[in-house]
DNA sequence: GCCAACGTTGGC
DNA sequence: GCCAACGTTGGC
């Protein structure tokens, strides 16, 4: 899951251990579908810092709710307001996540150096999805990287 | 700030 | 249903 650290960084989550954070504001159908259809409570999440000086994976979070309607879609004052979303059939959902651990920053540059990750969805050309699935082999490789020096 | 990539919108 | 125009993402 990508987040702009100016908005929500791994440190923000770490400052409130045990507290859940709603992952609101997803407004892309593919990303929504991953949340709605593929995520399970208890799933771990790679927390990625995007649109910043040093983009990369900064830690782990955990999915801790089922998908439920994102309230910001109905809030006219929100930048995520979607006037076309029907109240009786909300278009956008979110899940709650909570902090698991901070890791060393595994930068995008580093991630691109590993042939083992060449097929990773996050790294594909033109990928803009804020939520992408991670293959088990990629997951194992990255968790291992977290414990090694850069 | 630039720009490639891609999604969405809306006229036809 | 096609596709041009436009908007957004996000690395650089």
UniProtKB/TrEMBL annotation:
Residues 1-144 form the EVE domain. It comes from the Bacteria. CDD domains: EVE. Pfam families: EVE. InterPro entries: 5hmC_binding, EVE_domain, PUA-like_sf, THYN1-like_EVE. This is EVE domain-containing protein.
């Amino acid at each position: 899951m990508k987040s702009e650290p100016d908005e929500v960084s791994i440190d923000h989550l770490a400052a409130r251990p045990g507290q859940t954070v709603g992952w609101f504001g997803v407004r892309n159908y593919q990303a929504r579908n991953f949340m709605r259809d593929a995520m399970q409570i208890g799933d771990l999440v790679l927390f990625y810092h995007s649109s910043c000086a040093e983009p990369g994976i900064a830690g782990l979070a955990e999915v801790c709710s089922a998908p439920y309607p994102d309230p910001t879609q109905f809030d006219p004052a929100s930048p995520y307001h979607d006037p076309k979303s029907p109240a009786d059939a909300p278009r956008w959902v979110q899940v709650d996540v909570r902090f698991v651990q901070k890791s060393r920053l595994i930068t995008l540059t580093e991630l691109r150096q590993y042939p083992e990750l060449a097929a990773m969805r996050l790294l594909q050309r033109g990928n803009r999805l804020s939520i992408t699935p991670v293959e088990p082999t990629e997951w194992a490789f990255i968790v291992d990287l977290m414990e090694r020096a850069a």
